[in-house]
Amino acid sequence: MKDFLTDQGVEVEIERLRESPYVKLAKKEEALRYRRRQYMYQLRAYEKKGRKLEAQGYTLDNLEEMWNDS
Which of 16, 33, 62, 70 is the most exposed place for a label (fewest CB within 10 A)? Predict the structure, then answer.
């Protein structure tokens, strides 16, 4: 028969895991990986927006001029 944790046992185990250096290491790695993914998604959005701007006639050279004219 399996041992089941009491509510207090669950809380003790959670506290132990929160202090574990292995948990901290894994959380940091995950945060870094997700940060890179978010950066990639942001760059994709900028690329999509840049394509739309180019289709409207904007370039790096005339962007400020066209922005001020509108």
Answer: 70
